[in-house]
Amino acid sequence: MIEEPYRWVEAIANRREYIETQLAPGSPIAALSYRDGILFLTVGRARQKLFEIYDRIAMGAIGHPGDIERLRMAAIELASTEGFTRSAADVSLRRLAYYSLSPLLKTAFEQIYGAPFLARMIFAEVGATAAEDLFLRVEYDGAITANGPAAGATHPARFSVISGTNRGTGLMEEFLRREHDAGCTLNRAMKLALDAWSVGNLPAPEDGEAEMPAHETIARHRTEELKSASVEASVLERNGASAIRYRALTSEELKALLP
Amino acid sequence: MTSDSLGGNLPDFPALLRREGLLGEPSSPASSPSLGKGSDFVPTQATTILAFKFSGGILVAGDRRATAGNTVVYDRADKVLEIDRHSIMAIAGVPATAWEMARVLEHSLQFFRRTQLQEMSVDGKVRALSKLLRDNFGFVIQGIGVVVPIFATYDFGGEGQARLYFYDPMGAQFEVTDYAVTGSGSPGVRGVLFYENRWGEKPLQKLREDDAVTIALRALDTAAEADTATGGVDRNARIFPLIKIISREGIRTLPEKQLAERFKRTVA
């Protein structure tokens, strides 16, 4: 039965709906350029959601921990073997995502007798200047949305976000398009990222309209949520003596930086 | 525990490289025929490295010469290699093997940290290098791939302390309290360090950085006096040894200017 084309389309649609439902409660993640690098931020309760992939590449993900783990391992293995056999300069996020991860995800998603990856990911690679920072949102079906030099836009956004729902993602992007400037300080970037997180995490209003919440609503939601959850943040530093630019912010640093 | 039963998340980078065909199998004495009597192949050798603890952490120094038999191959070789933010592997022996080993070790430690989301323990790091030496033993028997490294690192366990090890070519590791020396010029260097530690103005562990640098430069110059394979300090071309310092804050490479000044004042 499944061999019939329309059944296959139906099965894919069902599968998409199932995955979206599973991802919906995921806590949003924002990544954005600031003057000295790229900031990753999310708010969580237990699980680590931001990871180092290679010297200049970091990843954040929402979804099933087992699937995230398999994808994270695949990314680290690919980057590490490339960095070992050639050089660290040959490891590129663009190649990693487009040539390796995307085909893998698409195959798993479309083979309807096998299990798809329940994961939505955000990757960033820090460049020598903010204009060279690359942001990629990678979906469970292998689709990639790029922000940065590869995107081809005249004014590419210097940020990327993921959330459990399309609505949340859209609102977060709108918020950052309005407020974000790649030349800002880490302090300012922290506040923006946290506000963007609140925008993406606020429940949809009763009438279902995707409307930007007011500043007070955002601030209230942020304060409320931070009572029971903690901020997780890491940075990819633009300039550093060491080749390794990834660093998770310590709790002391977070305390000093949070509004 | 096999990687199959755990879905592949085993933090063994050399095993991953072998799976991908990017690293040779371990060489064993049995599978390694010697070069044969008629062979005139002489491998490049890098020599004479030293490390000792002083008041500011560990000083690791290496001369810059690489030789093959009687020939000086290179006079700016880098034998003091940073492995991670707090670890240094210094090498004496065949550079082709040693640099590859350092590369595998560096990537192994990073791979472990990234996949396991924690730093590898000092014992784990020391053991990882030991295993690389063991895997190389076939080439040692052949006489073409001997590597005798020193490993220095900062251990954050407990109150934190600098740790220093040297190895033999088979991979046995020896932790030392004061200093470690390997390479062809090591007898001279060892003599200098032993003398300074026992009868010098202060024991090595109490030295300030400036005085530690002086002793490192003098020791390498002493080695170069008798051993042609050690470059020491090249006065004509102004080539200085490479000196790095490990402390709690990380690794620092001493600038050539500082070495030149110190050399002029206290060595030359």
Kindly summarize this structure in a few lines.
Chain A contains 7 helices and 10 strands. By secondary structure, chain A is an alpha+beta fold.
Structural class of chain B: alpha+beta
The CATH topology of chain A is Glutamine Phosphoribosylpyrophosphate, subunit 1, domain 1
Poorly predicted ranges of chain A: none
Under the CATH scheme, which architecture of chain B would be assigned? 4-Layer Sandwich
| End-to-end gap of chain A | 57 Å
The CATH superfamily of chain B is Aminohydrolase, N-terminal nucleophile (Ntn) domain
Measured as a percent range, the helix fraction of chain B is 25-40%
Q: What is the global morphology of chain B?
A: globular
Helix count, DSSP H or I runs of 4 or more residues of chain A = 7
What topology emerges from the helices and strands here?
The complex is a heterodimer of chains A (about 260) and B (about 270).
Chain A: H1 5-23, E1 29-34, E2 37-44, E3 50-54, E4 57-63, H2 65-85, H3 93-110, E5 119-125, E6 134-138, E7 144-147, E8 159-162, H4 166-179, H5 186-201, H6 215-226, E9 230-237, E10 246-248, H7 251-257
Antiparallel strand pairs in A: 1-2, 1-8, 2-9, 3-4, 4-5, 5-6, 6-7, 9-10
Helix pairs in contact in A: 2-3, 4-5, 5-6
Chain B: H1 13-19, E1 45-46, E2 49-54, E3 57-62, E4 66-68, E5 71-74, E6 80-84, E7 87-93, H2 95-116, H3 122-135, H4 137-142, E8 147-155, E9 161-167, E10 173-176, E11 179-182, H5 186-199, H6 209-226, E12 242-247, E13 250-253, H7 256-266
Antiparallel strand pairs in B: 1-4, 2-3, 2-11, 3-12, 4-5, 6-7, 7-8, 8-9, 9-10, 12-13
